Every structure is written in C-alpha cells, then in structure tokens.
Amino acid sequence: PATGSGIGGVFLGMIFGIMSFVGWKAAASLGEETRDPHTSIPRALLGAVAVIGCYYVFVTYAATIGFGPSNMDRFAGDAAWFDTLTREYLGAGWAPFVGIAALTGAIASAIGIHNSTVRLLYALGRDGVLPRVLAKVHPTRQSPYVAASVQAGYSVVLGIVFSAFIFPDPATTYGYFGGLGTLAVLLVYIFINVSVFLYFFRKERENFSVLRHAVIPLVATAAVCLPIYGLIYPVPDPPFNLWPYLIALWALIGLGFLFYISRRRPQLVEVMGRAFSESGDEPDTAQEDVGGVRDRKAPGGRTTPGRTD
Description:
By secondary structure, the chain is mostly helical. The chain has helices spanning 6-19, 37-67, 72-76, 81-89, 95-126, 145-165, 170-202, 210-232, 243-264, 266-271.
C-alpha cells in the first residue's frame, strides 16, 4: 500500500514481513497459566519462531516456482496469488477450498492477537490499573468475557469506521493498522534489548554474558532499526507517513497514564509487569500481596482466566 523503491523500499517492506512474525510471542502472555514458565515459555517461543520461519520459506519458495523466477512482477502485483496458483495448477474447483483455508488462517491469527490482548486487559483490570470490571469472568465458562467483549467491540468499530470513511477497503485498513502496530512493536523490541543489557550489567553482573546480553541485543537492535529507517526516508505516501507521529502520541498518552498512576496509586506501578516474574514453584503472582494489593482474585473465584470463548 505504501510505495517505495531501492533499499528504502526494502526496509519499508520489512515492516510487513515482521508483521507476519508478530504473533510468535503470544505464548508469553500465558505465563501465569503455565507450569514452570521459565522453561516452557522459552521453548514455545523458540519453537514458534523456527516453525514459522521454515513455513514462510517453504511457501515463498513454492510461490516463486509457481509463478516462475522471471515473473516476479506478476507475483508481487497479485493480491490473491494463492488463488491464482490454485486455479492454474489444480483447477478452479479447488480455489474455494484454498480460499477457505486462507480465511481460516487469517481468523486464527486474529484470535491469537485477540486472546493476548484480552489476557492483558484482564490482568490490568484484576490489578486495578484499569477498571476492575475487565477482570470479571463468566460464571459458567470461567472466561474473561468482559475483557473479550471490550476488545472485540473496539476492533469491530475501528474496522468499520476506517473501512467506510477513510480507506477504500477493509484490506487497506488491515494493512495500515498492521503496519502501525508492527512499528510500535519494533520500538518495544529496542527498549527490551537495551533493558536486557542494563539489567544484567547492573544487577546480575555475575551472570552477565558479553555474547548473550550485549552482542546479540546490539545486533538485534541494529536490525530492528532498518525498517524504522525505511519509514523515515524516503517519506512514504500519506497516510502511512503519519505512523511515527501516531505512535509518539500513543506513547505520550501511556506515559501520562503511568505518571498519573504513580502519583495516585504508586503500589500499582510495582504490580504492573510482575505477572511473569515468578517461577512455577513459587506462589502465584495473582495471589500474593504485592505493594498492598492483596488477594487479587477476579469475581467467580478464579485468579486466571480459562478460555476466551
């Protein structure tokens, strides 16, 4: 959707390539529900990256062979290349089944993002950072239905408004917000890399590794900066050129909210982010008394949600 050429266009295109990997860290949001999360979660994350990477390489290779190496312009300009290749090699009768499979994959991806967001809304509501009504669970299904309803309703309204009044079609809306969210995630990755170095260098000096805690985060940060550079120069077409400003505005809102919380209810600042800090053989973070926040159970008696259906 946003035009670009040369190396700047490659960097800009990396935004959408990285967007395809964003869901790899969804397992991290299930730390409270996992036995021995310090072992299970890293395995799940590394496994997800490996499987996703191999799958994308295989699919891209198959599509390249399908169109032919000399027809990459046709491949790049085909918005539904999987449908095109199906009709060309298997026949038109198979196209609906491939379309259903692609739609199922898109829905599964959306559900994964939805579940991660709902889990965070639930945790923030349980801890009192956001309205506690978000921590209510269904009396029968034991799922965080309020947080799920808020997340789903917000997404539907946002999609309808932007698709109807700002962008020409839903696909452009999806691409715009997907790219916007990916850029925000890249900035988070940079902060995480810097935090890893500072934490181990200052507080865990005996466990500090130059390779793991300095070289690898530095290389990862440099790689992440490439697509960010592609958004700055050359300047992409409107409204994609607004991405950095929208993220800066959202960050300012978040910092303002954090400042408000730190002044009005400072004990909540300590609670935030502790959900995954305890190992599986220690007390559940949601049950312990942290900074004066005691017995943080959601209505219904459950500490952590089950399904989000």
